[in-house]
Amino acid sequence: MSPRGRIVLMRAAQTGGVDCDDEWYDAMETCMQCRGCEAACPAGVPFGELISGTRSAMSAVRRAPVHLRVGLWALTQHRLLLFGSRILAVLQRLRVIPRVGFLPRRLPLVGSRLSYRADGDVILFTGCVMDVWQPEVHDACQYVIEVTGSTVARSGPTAGCCGALHEHAGLHGTARRLAKQVVQALKGNEPVLVDSAGCGAALKAYGDLLGTPEARTFSDRVRDVHEWLEERMESLPSLPDGDRPGVIVQDPCHLRHVQGAHMSLRKVLSQYVDVVELNDDGLCCGAGGSYSLLQPELATAARDRKVDLITKASGLSGAELVVSANPGCSMHLAAVGLDVLHPMQVLAEVLEAGIDPEGVRDGQ
Amino acid sequence: MVHKMPSGTDELIADLADAIGAGRVTAGGAAREIYGRDSSIIEGGHSGPVCFPESTRQIAECVRVAVAHGRDFVPRGAGTGLSGGAVPCNDPVVISTTRMNRILEVDVERRIAWVEPGVINLDLSRHLAGTGLHFAPDPSSQQACTIGGNLANNSGGPHCLAYGVTSEHVAAIEVVLSDASTVLLGAEVGDAVGYDLRGAFVGGEGTLGIAARIAVRLTPDPPVVRTLLLDFQSLVDAAETVTGIIAAGIVPAALEMMDRNTVEAVENFVEAGYPRDAEAVLIVELDGLEEGVTHEIKIVKRVGNENGVGTVRVAADDVERELIWKGRRNAFGAIAHIKPGYYLHDTVVPRTRLAEVVAKVNEAVERHDLIVANVFHAGDGNLHPLMAFDPREPGVMERVYAASEEIVRIAIEAGGVLSGEHGIGLEKRGFMPLLYSPDDLSAQRALRDAFDPVGHANPLKMFPTGSSCGDVMHLAEVPEGVWV
Questions:
Q1: A27: which chain B residues are within 8 Å (Cβ-Cβ)?
Q2: Nearest neighbour of A15 by CB, restricted to B26, B29, B479
Q3: Closest CA to B346 of B244, B426, B431, B422
Q4: Region label for B132, one of left (φ > 0), alpha (ψ between -120 and 50) or beta (otherwise)
Q5: Secondary structure class of B126 (helix, strand, coil)
Q6: B29·A42 Cβ contact <8 A
Q7: What are B423-478's pLDDT values in tens digits?
Q8: pLDDT band at A289 (very low <50, low <70, confident <90, very high)
Q9: Sheet of A152-154: strands edge to edge?
Q10: SS3 string of B208-243?
Q11: CB contact under 8 A, A45 and B336
Q12: C-alpha to C-alpha distance for B235 and B246, rounded to whole angstroms
């Protein structure tokens, strides 16, 4: 099914040219919402708006499946998420629960190992599940920001979840409520830096989502961490020439197609490593927010294609590291055994080894 | 209005499901809505059941069942066609090749690849990365269009100037005929003995049968590629430069022209640094050995200077080169920055008459109070005048249609032909008698009948008929309030 096909169906639904039956719903639900079509569209068709409005209207007629609703609700309950995750972490170590596809193979038992302040030059947006499942990514990100000489505050549980997955699933109302909560919690003028491409895209869209001057001002403060670093390259140390590891970059759709920040990532990384491209114009890996849970067959096919490309790129270049700047993508790829790091983890590693070759950084 | 399927359709669907599996047949309203059209502005097509076979045998089964039920069958690739070749008339069985997207075999030494028809054009060249080979035909829709569709339309693309259109790159084809039998046309090596039936099949728009497996010829990557962007203050100067370059003995890998309106629209999208104040820009791509390319760049610059070129920019790296091409490839879609709808023509005229024909075309379109933008494969005289319009404007389609007819007549009077690469389909079938005598047409019909004696293989395409299916004029009425 192509974006054009979906637009034809949306229009047919509007004019009454088609019945909105299971097949019609299926056509809309199988859209990954990767927004790759938008980046490719010379006519500038705002497909994201069209599908988002359609999904929102659909969710009013047909409720999302229970497991999805429960999961999305849990994202808004930070303490519960943390508590539940720790229990699962212990059970994983005791080997009493089987492996579940979307769960990291080894959930963390402890959170961030870095101390952070209530006020900083910048606010690092920590979100919901990433804060609980991938605290090491936020730590690496904070380390890199601090190397530039800036201090870091974290958004924390008060700001909580950005609502990207809720908007993605058509739960427009919840997404708006969460957006208001984030805007309210993060008042001030500091830049809000984001290390999750999906969250970053959502925060940048608050202006349109809420339509208020406050939300627009907030969205203007939001930067993907790579965009922010790109403007401060001179603050990052130059390291002596040594081995430059080859790093395969898997672009999250919301970094490349929605935020257009993928070139910033390359600019920052390529100062220290050799960037290896996948040559697929940023095709979706199949994670797609909750897509991998709801459309496992298509999500798996997309992942297989991505894994093939990664294997091929690795074979041609000799690179072994794979990075992706979105927790959904890295977890989706990790589920088939691929070790995927966040670009900030690689950067933190390289910087630390260069700055203090003898030391071992906390938390890594 | 939801279109009703003719009687007997339930039995047809059941038989198709029995033959190829229920998961490979769909007949819901949504599918019929989508598969009722292609990328042209032609509306009014009605699809019957849509099948997604996954093997040659399953294609043959679809054909067998369709014909047994007295239905036509229409093959379909990615639906990127621009002349209505895949638009279904009279509720036929639509056979979509999208699930047949495997690259079966790549023989680097013999430079041959066997592919299924649903392989996306660009996917093949990407798959070949590292082998030093690529698939040369590169239609602007190459990110989406399929090789089966390229074959059916004998598609071109910017690089077909030097490398030839699809037919040059197809060695052999496994074809399912309308009696559900399978034949192999052509040969992997050399030419098949006897008539060149492969050559007859390529460009057949599905009226002769369905390609189920294709052996394509692979082309070595050139050692050096340089892309030049030249701008001019007059279209005539740009056209003279095109003629001058070819007359100087150079056949560039690609030689493309865009006029001011196109550049304006494209630059809004790609920001490739196209000069917005130029009346025309030329993209000249040269490839080959370093010394040869350097020499040819000098000649192109000289010819440009003789014809009043403004600036000559040589792309510094692959990123810049890709940006220039991205602009050209997306030129049609970018026209939406001018008006929401467009109607594109595809005619070929002798290269030496380019400037004169474009001037006439522009005059004709503007006389009908429409905006015209020109993009063309200048090197081979292939014109793509686009008329930009807003379909919600009352009466606009009548003007578009009248201007279209004039465009075609102007091209033919200048010694040109109806189509360069987009095919005839439904769109231009009515114009065929302008180009061919009744004798020519009946000879072509005889060829068609030899391949498809029962007349069920994508009928109503290519030849003039009285049927009004898929009329371009259907779009004349757009319901109020519909976004376009």
A1: 30, 34
A2: B479
A3: B422
A4: left
A5: helix
A6: no
A7: 888 888 888 888 889 999 999 999 999 999 999 999 989 988 766 665 554 443 44
A8: confident
A9: A152-154, A122-125, A192-194, A222-224
A10: CCEEEEEEEECEECCCEEEEEEEEECCHHHHHHHHH
A11: yes
A12: 17
| B143/A40 Cβ within 8 A | yes
Here the contacts of A85-89 (C-beta below 8 Å, separation 24 or greater) are A85/A132, A85/A133
Domains of chain A as residue ranges with CATH: 3-63 (no CATH), 69-230 (no CATH), 239-355 (3.40.50)
Q: Could you say which residues from 24 to 83 on chain B have a Cβ atom under 8 Å away from some Cβ of chain A?
A: 26, 28-31, 33-34, 37, 39, 78-79
Instruction: Tokens for B340, please give them.
Output: 């929401």
Q: B301-358 pLDDT, tens per residue?
A: 999 999 999 999 999 999 899 999 999 999 988 988 899 888 888 888 998 888 889 9
Q: Hey, what amino acid is at A140? A: A
Residue A364 has pLDDT above 50, yes or no: no
Q: Which residues in chain A are closer than 8 Å to B34, comparing Cβ atoms?
A: 1, 5, 8-9, 27
Q: How far apart are the first and last CA of chain B?
A: 19
| Residue in chain A lying closest to B98 (CA) | A1
Q: For residues B395 and B365, what is the distance between their CA atoms, to the nearest angstrom? A: 15
**Are the Cβ atoms of A23 and B330 closer than 8 angstroms?**
no
Residues on chain B touching A44 (C-beta within 8 angstroms) = 269, 336-337
User: Which residues fall within 8 angstroms of residue A63, CB to CB, at 6 or more apart?
Assistant: A69
From chain A, pick out residues whose CB is under 8 angstroms from the CB of B146: none
Tokens, residue B149: 């569709």
The whole-angstrom distance between B91's CA and the closest CA on chain A is: 16
Q: A170-179, A233-242, B104-113: which has the minimum mean pLDDT?
A: A233-242
Question: Is the CB of residue B296 less than 8 Å from the CB of residue B286?
Answer: yes
- Strand (E) or helix (H) holding B362: helix B354-367
The owner of tokens 């090491």 is A136
Residue ranges of domains in chain B, CATH in brackets? 9-99 (3.30.43.10), 103-220 (3.30.465.10), 224-333 (3.30.70.2190), 339-451 (3.30.70.2740)
CA distance B225 to B293: 8
Distance between CA atoms of B450 and B109, rounded to whole angstroms? 36
Report chain A residues whose CB lies below 8 A from the CB of B81: none
* DSSP type of residue A256: I
- Measured between CA atoms, the residue of chain B closest to residue A38 is B269
What letter represents residue B267's amino acid? Answer: E
Give the Cα separation of A207 and B453 in Å (integer).
63
Distance CA A52, CA A57 (A): 9
Question: How many Cβ atoms from other residues are within 10 Å of residue B295's Cβ?
Answer: 13
Give the mean model confidence (pLDDT) for residues A243-271: 95
In order of B169, B230, B251, B380, the CA distances from B288 in angstroms are: 19, 20, 11, 20
Amino acid at A87: I
Chain A residues touching chain B at CB-CB below 8 Å: 1-2, 4-5, 8-9, 11-12, 14-19, 21-24, 27, 40-45, 279-281, 312, 316
Q: Which residues of A touch B140 (CB under 8 A)?
A: none
Structure tokens at B394: 């009352």
Q: Write the CB contacts of A166 (distance below 8 Å, at least 6 apart in sequence).
A: A72, A75, A172, A174, A175, A178
Enumerate the residues of chain B whose CB falls inside 8 A of the CB of residue A53. none
